[in-house]
From TrEMBL:
<dbReference type="GO" id="GO:0008483">
    <property type="term" value="F:transaminase activity"/>
</dbReference>
<dbReference type="GO" id="GO:0030170">
    <property type="term" value="F:pyridoxal phosphate binding"/>
</dbReference>
<dbReference type="InterPro" id="IPR015422">
    <property type="entry name" value="PyrdxlP-dep_Trfase_small"/>
</dbReference>
<keyword id="KW-0032">Aminotransferase</keyword>
<dbReference type="InterPro" id="IPR015424">
    <property type="entry name" value="PyrdxlP-dep_Trfase"/>
</dbReference>
<dbReference type="InterPro" id="IPR036388">
    <property type="entry name" value="WH-like_DNA-bd_sf"/>
</dbReference>
<keyword id="KW-0663">Pyridoxal phosphate</keyword>
<feature type="domain" description="HTH gntR-type">
    <location>
        <begin position="1"/>
        <end position="69"/>
    </location>
</feature>
<protein>
    <submittedName>
        <fullName>PLP-dependent aminotransferase family protein</fullName>
    </submittedName>
</protein>
<keyword id="KW-0808">Transferase</keyword>
<dbReference type="GO" id="GO:0003700">
    <property type="term" value="F:DNA-binding transcription factor activity"/>
</dbReference>
<dbReference type="InterPro" id="IPR004839">
    <property type="entry name" value="Aminotransferase_I/II_large"/>
</dbReference>
<dbReference type="Pfam" id="PF00155">
    <property type="entry name" value="Aminotran_1_2"/>
</dbReference>
<dbReference type="GO" id="GO:0003677">
    <property type="term" value="F:DNA binding"/>
</dbReference>
<comment type="similarity">
    <text>In the C-terminal section; belongs to the class-I pyridoxal-phosphate-dependent aminotransferase family.</text>
</comment>
<keyword id="KW-0804">Transcription</keyword>
<keyword id="KW-0238">DNA-binding</keyword>
Length: 471
């Protein structure tokens, strides 16, 4: 996070806590510059962010004042799903979301694709071209089952940032994070088993459970601290739960980072009840603050945490390069991978390994963290401007996904169908629930550049929501 972003966050917290009251004049640019030991331009950039968020208002020759309107919408409350095992539904709605990818005219606020337009990706494209020219036989050959060693070595180095010390031999390359999660579930569960999930939870994981005939039990989840340890413990005492799937870092769709103490608590709970934790860390590298947060896997001492991740969100989904660290389930995962025909494409693995080795990956990450945070601020401002004032909005700690809770009478499933006719795609909240809850919520992908076209599309979405409230 840059200095001006850090300062903007600090001032926003002070406004939210009431230290700077509505209508009150803020310290001058020069005074803040001296107080924090930064340049005047840094203060001006911080104030510009707050102005974009409509938290402050400039007045000529007088300075900056706290806006009269409410500073920020409240964060959604702890979710309250029905705590019993259910069969996952919503497949038809997920297919509608996936089908929209084929429409080039669609503005996809509902998808989860990262920004692929940045120049920091150019070294990767050059490396792929070089491999095609100079290693055609190798790129068209069979891969080894566990994946390219040079890539596994680079991933092992990356995992140190999340607190995990693993050898390349402990890592298995997969077909994206989806492939890693599939292998994890196939290795530890059988049809009819029960798996605990956060609520709301990523729809792709939900549909995986449906496909494997595994029941889901949704656990109440706080949008700022994560899954309720107390509710999970109660569920473990009542039901024969086999595993829990967690996205503790830059959660999809709520955006929280689970505090380190709670990560240790959930691991202790898993040890006490002898269950498996499947940890999805696909967004962990996109945390706004550096160093990145630790994984639950980094605290694991008995191999019960299966860590899954990929370069889908940090680099590009088309690479289809992910990985799993299976712990005590390594042999089972390798067998499941072979049974599923899971050899990987050598060319993309070779290119990603070089991209990391040559320092381009970390430069790209630094750029994307900053861009996504700026996008989050801009889109949050637009949501406040164009959506009803009764909304609740998450405060993501990284990544590029924003969760919005609308008034109860709004059915985003119906609104989404209407928006499709306008070539605007929205992800209704019900997609993220096994039982179809959260119909009055939606997830917005802010990786889309904040262009005038996308602003107009979000404005139309807000208009459709207002109409739904009146019906």
């Amino acid at each position: 996070m840059t200095r001006y972003q850090h300062l903007a966050n600090l001032l926003a917290q002070r406004i939210e806590q009431g230290l700077y009251r509505s209508g009150e004049r803020l310290p001058s640019v020069r005074a803040l510059s001296q107080e924090h030991g930064v340049s005047i331009s840094t203060i001006q950039q911080a104030y510009q962010i707050l102005e974009n968020l409509q938290l402050i208002t400039p007045q000529p020759r007088s300075g900056y004042f706290v806006s009269q309107k409410k500073a920020l919408p409240p964060v959604p409350a702890m979710t309250r799903p029905v705590q019993r095992p259910v069969d996952v539904t919503q497949w038809d709605e997920v297919m509608m979301l996936l089908d929209a990818r084929g429409d080039r005219e669609m503005i996809s606020f509902g998808g989860g694709s990262p920004d692929l337009t940045q120049p920091s990706l150019k070294p990767l494209w050059r490396e792929m071209s070089r491999i095609a020219q100079h290693n055609p036989a190798e790129m068209l050959s069979y891969d080894v089952l566990e994946g390219r060693k040079e890539l596994r070595e680079q991933i092992a180095r990356l995992m140190l940032d999340g607190g995990s010390t693993v050898a390349a031999e402990e890592i298995v390359i997969t077909n994206g994070c989806h492939g890693a999660l599939s292998l994890a579930l196939l290795s530890v569960c059988k049809p009819g088993d029960i798996v605990a999930v956060e609520s709301p939870s990523f729809h792709g994981t939900m549909q995986m459970l449906r496909g494997f005939d595994i029941k889901a039990i949704e656990i109440p989840t706080d949008p700022e601290t994560g899954i309720s340890i107390e509710a999970l413990e109660l569920a473990l005492e009542q039901w024969p739960i086999k595993a829990v799937i967690l996205v503790p870092n830059c959660n999809n769709p709520l955006g929280f980072i689970m505090p380190e103490a709670r990560k240790r608590q959930v691991l202790a709970l898993a040890q006490r009840h002898d269950i498996v934790i499947v940890e999805d860390d696909i967004y962990g590298e996109l945390a706004a603050d550096y160093p990145r947060p630790r994984t639950i896997h980094s605290f694991d001492i008995d191999g019960r945490v299966l860590l899954c991740s990929s370069f889908t969100k940090t680099v590009a989904p088309g690479l289809r390069v992910g990985w799993i660290v299976p712990g005590r389930y390594y042999d089972r995962v390798m067998h499941m991978k072979y049974a599923a025909g899971g050899f990987n494409v050598p060319a993309t693995q070779m290119a990603v390994a070089a991209f990391i080795r040559d320092g381009h990956y970390h430069r790209h990450l630094r750029r994307m963290r900053q861009i996504y945070q700026q996008n989050m601020e801009r889109y949050t401002c637009w949501v406040r401007q164009y959506f009803p004032c009764e909304i609740c909005v998450t405060r993501p700690k990284g990544s590029f996904l924003l969760w919005v809770e609308l008034p109860e009478q709004v059915d985003m499933v119906c609104v989404s169908k209407q928006l499709c006719a306008l070539k605007i795609q929205a992800a209704a909240g019900s997609l993220f629930s096994a039982s179809g809850k959260y119909r009055n919520c939606l997830r917005i992908n802010v990786a889309l550049p904040p262009t005038e076209k996308n602003r107009e599309a979000l404005k139309k979405m807000g208009e459709a929501i207002y109409i739904a409230m009146e019906e």
